[in-house]
Design goal:
mainly alpha, 9 helices, elongated
Length: about 170
Amino acid sequence: MRAALFEECAGRPLDEVGVAAVVRRAGVGRATFYLHYGGLEELAVDACAEVVREAVDALHAWRGTPDPARPPEPLTAFFGELAERAALHRGLLREGGGGPLGDLLHRELRERSRRERELAGAPAPELVASAVAATFTALLADWLHGRIAAGPAAMAHASWRLLISLHRTPLP
């Protein structure tokens, strides 16, 4: 059903996709769909979990002191892979960062960033984690929707520098 949802969302936004189209494409009945999911939004969140995990891991794929001049290679690779499936993800991630993919990414990234800052003893873990999650989610969404003109490598570099700046901002 995940694959069917992705195929349906490749041509139109999630809010224009119906359960009937997904189950028809998946070759299952509506009853089977509702045994597993309460609705399309729930299926979308489940289907997006892997993309979110990849994004969160890519942003945290460094050890020691991060180099603001060079994003982690997994982050650059993430943007490249996402660009290949941009049409699909635009249906699940609205401009500005909303939608099932955006909501899940924001929650997961905020939690991981907060935890990492607490482990490092960095100040204001809740504040900075929230800013990092909101910034990255919105940047990613606006890039996918063509609001930011940059190739995958340039976008990874710019996003990385902005996120490093948030982490390094002196806070009282």
